[in-house]
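Help wanted!
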Amino acid sequence: MNAVDVCHLTHSFGPRRALDDVTFSVPAGAFAVLLGLNGAGKSTLFSVITRLYHSQSGEVRVFGASLRRSPLAALAETGVVFQASTLDLDLTIRENLRYHGALHGLSQRETDARQDDELRRAGLHERLHDRVRSLSGGLRRRVELVRALLHRPRLLLLDEPTVGLDAAARREFLAYVRSLRDQRQVTVLWATHLMDEVDADDEVLLLHRGRLVRQASAGRLVRETESGSIAHAFAALTG
Amino acid sequence: MLRYTRAFIGIMRREGLRVIRQRGRLAAAIVRPLIWLAVFAAGFRNALGLSIAPPYQTYILYEVYIVPGLAAMMLLFHAMQTSLSMVYDREMGSMRVLLVAPLPRWYLLAARLTASTLVVLPLVVGFLLVSRLWGVRPPGWGYVAALPALLLSGLMLGAFGLLVSSAIRQLENFAGVMNFVIFPMFFASTALYPLWRIEDASMWVATAARLNPFTYAVELIRFALYLRMDWLSVAVVTGAAVVFFGLAVLGYEPARGWALARNDS
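Answered by r_m:
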């Protein structure tokens, strides 16, 4: 079964076409990288997959649930880490997580039990009662990741999650998300413009000016374009 | 049903924590009407004669007259500040957390509106009680009767704020809201002067006051506080709340993209 099916998706802002007939599927359990420069349409695509926008034409399904016909089932399967931080800075980690848990129908007790587990894994359990404002950028991202996983979604969307992090925090965060995929079979759709975040085995969705240029594993793209790296392959495919 | 209840409790808890944590805002919310009462009313009490008019059964001091209007002003400011924080949340992204929850969007907005109104009610009641020190002493049951009036008025003004927040794209535009929404709504109403006084001064302003839903919120609270029912105000405030909320839900519809920044990448 596919985690995400996007079929002929088109979305415009006035005269500007942000997504142009985009079609792709991400198989369950994959680590897929949505690769594109700024302005390629990555955030718009994420906004449609999370129902912040309705698709103007085309269809999106998350684990078979159509966003148009059964949006709540699709959203229940989806965890999101947005590009900009979406935590309440004046609330503690626990309060932020409880708020999210409640929005997903979890009782406070369930939320606390789950968050203890997740925070321990993320190395944050000792800071549970700290206000988010006092956390570094890297830790805030981790809290957002913990939050996104709280309702145990099968699909995890991350929109340029490493923006603003230093090199070490970036590597660490990426490794942590990869480990999640490996350990829990969570399907990951990771949007980025940073080529060094792509591994050879990753499924790459190459988005350029609102169009999906190519979908294949990173290794295959490099081989096919006879380039030395995914950055060169990207340059070759996007002209 | 349990999901809906839990979500509402979660939203309520968050709104409560935010109000408590924002000390400056909390202090301003309480001090603002007291300054009006202590300074403005003291200055005007001799300048303005008030005749006997319902719901009052005797001549009243000006302080007594403006207290319901100041209670409504607290609700108005709170509604507008909440709507400002929604614009901020949208720019900063935390509104997305609410809107991607697996619940119908109208419900999420209604829950946030209700929670935001409920958290301010204790402050308004506190102000009404403190105003007893200025000789504003409605009957004891008036405070109880005022609660549903305050809630309904708060929901109407909150829905209006929600509508404003759906229409405003950037924080910078909010100063305009202060000038063109809050001030006209407050001054062209019966909060500070009775309608017959306004009619004496300007028919044009009196007409604006009659068309202003805030006037009916003020009167609803005023009548309730003195254990009287003003059905016209109930009807106008309820109707306005429904219309504003309906339009706000449309404004936040995914089809319209709820006015996200259009230069998305």
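OP: Thanks! One thing I noticed: Strands of chain A lie at 2-13, 16-27, 31-35, 57-62, 65-66, 78-81, 155-159, 187-192, 203-208, 211-217.
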